[in-house]
Amino acid sequence: MKPPKTHTLIARVIAVLLLGSAGHAATLVWTNTAGGVWGSSSNWFPNLVPGSSDDIVITNAGVYTITLNTSPTVGSLTLGANSGQQTLATAGNTRPSIATAWLTATVFWR
Length: 110
Hints:
- It is built from 1 helix and 9 strands, in the order αβββββββββ.
- It has 110 residues and is mainly beta.
- The chain has one domain (25-109).
- The strands form 2 sheets. It has a 5-stranded mixed sheet, with no helix packed on it. It has a 4-stranded parallel sheet with strand order 2-5-7-9, with no helix packed on it.
């Protein structure tokens, strides 16, 4: 006996919704004001390493360095707080690819 067409349609819609949500961008916020490496999920909220379409927010006040231990590709980067010094430092031949960047306050890129 074949399943009713409505059940098949509902199953397909659920599959599209579940699979389609996997590619959506997330907003990740840097949380480690002591500094750290980009590729460590424990430095981000939520605890994920940024992906290619994610929006990155690094706006916590303080003096800290984020070391790019990967060559990240991100959707956008918001960098800079109202006080302190937030530094992105490359390690070796790492180079970020950023679709859109908003840089505020004093930003140091080494």
